[in-house]
Design brief:
Layout: H1 2-11, H2 25-40, H3 46-51, H4 56-81, H5 85-111
Length: about 130
C-alpha cells in the first residue's frame, strides 16, 4: 500500500503558474499607448482598431476593451432598471468590478501581455 502512495506522489508533476503570452516587442512599443487609453476610456475601444488594423496586440486589447464597454453598459442598465437592489447593490458593486477589470487591462497592456480579463475576457464579439 505504501508503494501505491509513493507512485502517485512521484507521477504527479508540480503545476507551474501559467505565463501570459507576449506580443512582438516592436508591435507592443508602437501600440502600447493606444491599448492603455482604450482601457481608461472604454468608449475609445475602436481607436486601436482603426489606427493599427494589422497589429495583433492592438486588436487583441481593442476586443478586450469592447467587452469592458459592453459589461459597463449592462451593469448600468440592469442596475438602473431594478429598483432598490439595483441602485444599492448592482450599481456600486458592478462599478467597482469594472474599475478593477479596467486596472487589470491597463497593467496587461503596459506589460505587453495578451492576457484575457477575468469573467468577460473570453467573450468574442469581433473575430
Amino acid at each position: 500500500m505504501s508503494e501505491e502512495i509513493k507512485q502517485t506522489e512521484t507521477t504527479e508533476a508540480p503545476k507551474a503558474a501559467p505565463v501570459a503570452p507576449k506580443a512582438d516587442s516592436s508591435d507592443v512599443e508602437q501600440n502600447k499607448v493606444m491599448a492603455i487609453v482604450g482601457y481608461i476610456v472604454p468608449i475609445l475601444f475602436f481607436v486601436p482598431m482603426l489606427a493599427e488594423k494589422k497589429s495583433p496586440f492592438g486588436m487583441y486589447h481593442a476586443k478586450q476593451q469592447l467587452n469592458l464597454l459592453l459589461a459597463g453598459i449592462a451593469v448600468n442598465v440592469v442596475g438602473t432598471i431594478i429598483p432598490i437592489l439595483g441602485w444599492f447593490i448592482i450599481l456600486p458593486l458592478g462599478s467597482i468590478a469594472l474599475i478593477v477589470l479596467m486596472i487589470m487591462g491597463v497593467i496587461n497592456a503596459s506589460k505587453g501581455e495578451l492576457k484575457q480579463l477575468p469573467v468577460i475576457g473570453g467573450i468574442q464579439i469581433i473575430k
